[in-house]
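Note to self: the last two entries modelled the partners one at a time, which told us nothing about the interface. This time every component goes in together.
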Amino acid sequence: MIINKVLSPVGDEQRAYEFLNNSGSNLGVLIQKLNAAQQYVQDKNALGSKYPVDLFCYEDTLADIVMPQKGRDTDDVFKELADIFDGSFRPQSPNFLFNMIPNPLQDTIIAAMLMQLNSNNCIMDSYDGKSILYEQKVARSLGSLVGWKNAFGVCCNGGKVTLFYALKSAINRIAPQAAQKGIPNDLVVLISSGAHYSIEHTCSMVGLGSDKCIRIPIDSREGITKLKLQAAFNEQIKKGKKVAAIICCGGTTIDFLCENTRHIYDAVVETTKRHKLGYFPYLHIDSVIGWLWFTFLGMDFEQIYEFAGNREIALKIFNVTNKLGGVKNFDSFGADMHKNGLCPYSSSFFIAKDQGAITGQGAKLLSGKKNYGDARAFNYTIENSRPSGGIASAWTALQRMGIEGFRQYLVELMRSTEIIKHALRKQAGIRILNEQSYGWEIVFSIKFQLLEEKMQTSDDKCIAESFIQYLWSKIDKGEDLPNFSIIKNYRKDFGPLEEHAFILYNMQIGVNDSAASQIADQVTGLAAVFQQEVINGFQSLVYTELKAPIR
Ligand SMILES: *Cc1c(COP(=O)(O)O)cnc(C)c1O
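The predicted structure of the combined assembly is written out below.
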């Protein structure tokens, strides 16, 4: 009896059937298996910011893969599955300084697992119970931070999908027939040139076409100015186009680029009035990172200062909340709880002021006092079957942290950054390039003096790219070193293209002076060893261009 032998840990046939039919309830066995599977991952003895990986070629590796004829033992399968982590980040490492990947709160992991454990499908309430209700509870909670009483939301796989929902809602609003007739040809969307790289692809996915995505130039991290927005808007009107949406930045990973939402709103009001447009563009803010600052909305500087206990941090937070003060006049925003909401993947939310635009015609979830049994998410979501883990973890994070907990989390992230910056400043040859950033990323340069002197090279960009690849190849081999990244042609104050810079993105809170010094010492130590190895001929400079890592 194969089922008996392979799929169940119990002896006789009848008990095997019972076990399988009820596998989620066998918690003891489940936890045992989870433990054993995780042990295989831990057996890799990865101590650093990455599980070591040997380079592999996809095509070669896949060449002989077929479905196994016979089932295999649990142990056998999980031993092999641990392989899946080779080359993957370990954000729990203090040396993980690469990007905004969270260390989730334990309870949010449990919440997500709970939904998996019970195979909950967030498709319609008669299937999923209250997961749509909880999705809307999260939406109302996050929406209430910006002053929306009737917020409506969709949990989705990432910030990119929140942009998708924003574009879809914008099209629904300006061209209600688009769902049946297709998207009119005269629609364009205006976007800050600092916005996420995924927006063009999202425009193509939604059916607009990436050429309809007009990027507005910016000249500082304060984002699009009123004048530049109006100029771009006027230009499109002159061309006979309709501006379906304006998508603003609400904080990015580099420089925390954030537009002034009040200025944007005023500019749009003026332009639509002046031209008697008869429509109002859909306003979305990509606050997948910036949502965390919403928790401070409504506080004046003194109150923020009192809470943060640090003048500089309070000033930065206040400046951001000042710019975000106009979000209540927008139509929607995004929040990535898997970035800075202490949740595991995936836990993004698209939050709209109300359900008007997203649900389109006739698909309203909440109108007319709908009751249990009436909710059908598939009328407005891109997927039909949907996991509910993101909903459960987001709700759990909101309950466990509260507004004050999230405020504290933000302050602590900023405080840790200040401590690391302080340690870096003490190192010879390191220059911090983004002292003024509102975020907690650290952008810095390293002076490779030895190389410049001995090798008489002035190709700073080549040296920087070679150094980062040198570091990453060590990390790929499993060495426990600070894992940071590179920004090609970092624009200092958005002036002319400047220099390659390095970026260090800390996600640990409570970093102290000695931990920070250790990071700083290692960074300069590595730069020194790298230079020595190049000079001695053990290491060569790489002249092929490095593909910039995603941001
Ligand atoms: C990360 C990010 C996105 C994309 O989010 P995913 O979760 O990776 O899909 C979009 N916009 C901004 C500002 C981001 O930081």
